[in-house]
Design brief:
Blueprint lengths: L8 H10 L2 H14 L3 H13 L12
Length: about 60
């Protein structure tokens, strides 16, 4: 059985709200720069932390 998990904006905002201010600001600024929603940026940050070969922010440049 495959699990399908949806990551909602409210979840991302809750995670961002618990991060140190400098990290929260950096992630939200990057989200604005590349025009991605906050939930995608949080998911990417977690993926990079867990897997060094994961998609990184530089891969999202336009």
């Amino acid at each position: 059985m495959k699990w399908k998990i949806k990551f909602f904006t409210s979840d991302a905002e809750a995670i961002l709200g618990r991060l140190p201010e400098q990290i929260r600001i950096a992630l939200t600024e990057r989200a604005s720069e590349i025009e991605y929603p906050s939930e995608v940026i949080v998911e990417m940050a977690i993926a990079i932390f867990l897997d060094s070969e994961a998609l990184v922010f530089a891969d999202c440049s336009q």
